[in-house]
């Protein structure tokens, strides 16, 4: 049974940094799977944050987050990460880790408001205060 467990969320002041982790188990290996981070701000729709293809040779970022957020995969810890720097109050959201069954689905559905990724974590809350 695939499980994705996010951690690393919390409360931080604007300008601060957080590193989110997503530990995968049950058959998903972040270094060999296409995975992504999504977020849902309060009262708003789900949106893609960053995605990394299997093998990590291709990454996608929502344009507004480029340069501040970095997605990475660990070959040794079976984990996906999201380094978030220069955080802003508008980054406040629940952040979810997700895995798709193919690079094609992963990299296409990333842009959808209802991405059909097969596996999802429960999310971790990030709150940025001004």
What descriptors fit this protein?
single chain, seven-stranded mixed β-sheet, 5% helix, four-stranded antiparallel β-sheet, 11 strands, mainly beta
Describe the structure.
This protein has one helix spanning 103-109; strands spanning 3-7, 10-13, 18-25, 35-40, 47-52, 59-61, 69-73, 79-84, 93-99, 119-120, 124-129. The mean pLDDT is 94. It has 130 residues and is mostly beta strands. The longest helix has 7 residues, at 103-109.
Helix and strand topology:
Layout: E1 3-7, E2 10-13, E3 18-25, E4 35-40, E5 47-52, E6 59-61, E7 69-73, E8 79-84, E9 93-99, H1 103-109, E10 119-120, E11 124-129
Identify low-pLDDT runs: none
- The radius of gyration computed from the alpha-carbon positions, rounded to a whole number of angstroms, is 13 Å
What is the tally of beta strands? Answer: 11
Report mean pLDDT, rounded to a whole number: 94
Structural class label? mainly beta
Largest beta-sheet characterization: 7 strands, mixed
Note the beta-strand portion: 35-45%
Total count of helical runs of at least 4 residues = 1
End-to-end distance: 40 Å
* Shape designation: globular
Fraction of residues in H or I helices = under 10%
Order of helices and strands: EEEEEEEEEHEE
Quick recap of the structure?
With 130 residues, the chain is mainly beta. It contains 1 helix and 11 strands; from the N terminus they run E-E-E-E-E-E-E-E-E-H-E-E.
